[in-house]
Each structure stands twice: as structure tokens, then as C-alpha cells.
Amino acid sequence: MLGSTLLNCSLISVLLLGFAAQTSLAHIFSKKKVIIKYLRYGNCGGTFDPVRFTDVQVSTTGDGDLVVSGKLDAYAKIEPPIKAIVKMKRRILGIWTPVPFCYNDFGSCDFDDICSYGRDYTNCPALLDEHDVPCECPIEKGRYILPGAQFSTKGTRWAVQIEFPSPLLIEKVATELEGVAK
């Protein structure tokens, strides 16, 4: 069993697919399209990392859905807690401006344990279940492959950066939360 102090950087890989799954479960999205500005990920440790991601691809469809594929090798059981820092930006007059608030876990938030986030469902999303990709912690040792899973995500006005503290950067455009940004 590995604690969060040993996993810091390598859990980035595990949470990339998890982020896409959690996004598909959120009820805050409008009918606008998702646009991925850019995605950067990396296996930031050495050859003894407990987790390694390969062949990661994230794209959007013409309808604005998020398409995620990749391979994950977990060389050890991944245990919670997994800390995550989410930084959100909003595009105002063409300029990405930081959103300084956290409202109902939406916005620029710190999560002490991302494993407990979004646990308002009883079953994994079907597309993760079909490919035996875990959607909750702990993550058992093994190889997980997600070939071109499509998640329904709608939105265009927010950018999200997630850090686990590491060099991973996810920039994803999401949506405007009604009433909060006014």
C-alpha cells in the first residue's frame, strides 16, 4: 500500500481518465460545445513509478463531446487520499481571468481527497465498466485500457487547470455556472 506522499506525481496519470469520467457525471453543463485548448501530461517520475500512462489522447467531437483514450499501468495498489488542486479561469473579453472562488466544489478549489469527489452515483459509468477501468479508489494493480471512450460534456466558457502537485496541466473549456459568476 502506498501513501499519498509516495504517489504525488505518478497519480496524475490515474486521474486524467477519472477527470473525464467525473466531468461526464456533472450536472452543471449547458448545451454549449467543449473546446480543448491544450492538454499536457507527463510521467514525471522514474522507472519505478507505481503508475504509468501511455498513448493518451483527448479530443472533442463535432457535437462537443470529450473523447478520451489511453493505457494505464498500475504497478501497485493506489490508495487514497489523493490531493488535487483545481484552478479555474473564465474568458472575459478574450482574456483568461482566474476565478478566485470555490462554490459547491466548482471553481478554484482544493480537494484533500479526489477519490471522494463525485461519489453521488452507485455504479461506474457504463463505458468505464465495459473496459474494466476503475472509477473509484483504491485502484488495484493492473493494466487498464480505454479505447476512444466518448463522454458527453457541454460548455465553452471556463478553463480548468488541475494539479496533483506536478507538471500535469489540463486545460479544458467548461461552462458558465448559472448565478455564481454574475
Task: Give an overview of the whole structure.
The protein has a single domain (4-174), classed as Ganglioside M2 Activator Protein, Chain: A. With 182 residues, it is mainly β. It has helices at 4-7, 11-25, 126-130; strands spanning 38-40, 51-60, 66-74, 84-92, 95-99, 102-103, 106-107, 109-111, 142-151, 158-163, 169-174. Helix content is 13%, strand content 36%. It contains 3 helices and 11 strands, in the order H-H-E-E-E-E-E-E-E-E-H-E-E-E. Strands 1, 4, 5, 8, 10 and 11 form a 6-stranded antiparallel sheet that branches. A 3-stranded antiparallel sheet has the order 2-3-9, covered by helices on one side. Mean pLDDT is 64; it is low at 1-31 and 161-182. Residues 1-26 form the signal peptide. InterPro entries: GM2-AP (IPR028996), GM2-AP_sf (IPR036846). This is MD-2-related lipid-recognition domain-containing protein. It comes from Cloeon dipterum. GO terms for molecular function: enzyme activator activity; lipid transporter activity.
Write the layout of secondary structure elements.
Layout: H1 4-7, H2 11-25, E1 38-40, E2 51-60, E3 66-74, E4 84-92, E5 95-99, E6 102-103, E7 106-107, E8 109-111, H3 126-130, E9 142-151, E10 158-163, E11 169-174
Antiparallel strand pairs: 1-11, 2-3, 3-9, 4-5, 4-8, 4-10, 6-7, 10-11
GO biological process, one term: ganglioside catabolic process
Protein name: MD-2-related lipid-recognition domain-containing protein
Signal peptide: 1-26
And the CATH topology? Answer: Ganglioside M2 Activator Protein, Chain: A
Number of strands: 11
Would you identify the CATH architecture?
Answer: Distorted Sandwich
Q: Which regions have little confidence, pLDDT < 50, spanning 5+ residues? A: 1-31, 161-182
Structural class: mainly beta
Percentage of residues in DSSP E strands: 35-45%
Output the radius of gyration: 16 Å
- The amount of helix comes to 10-25%
Average pLDDT rating: 64
Strand and helix order: HHEEEEEEEEHEEE
The number of domains: 1
Question: Alpha-carbon distance between the termini?
Answer: 45 Å
Count of DSSP H/I helices: 3
The main β sheet shows up as: 6 strands, antiparallel
Shape: globular
Question: What's the level 1 CATH class?
Answer: Mainly Beta
Keywords: Signal
InterPro entries: GM2-AP, GM2-AP_sf
GO molecular function: enzyme activator activity; lipid transporter activity
Protein name: MD-2-related lipid-recognition domain-containing protein
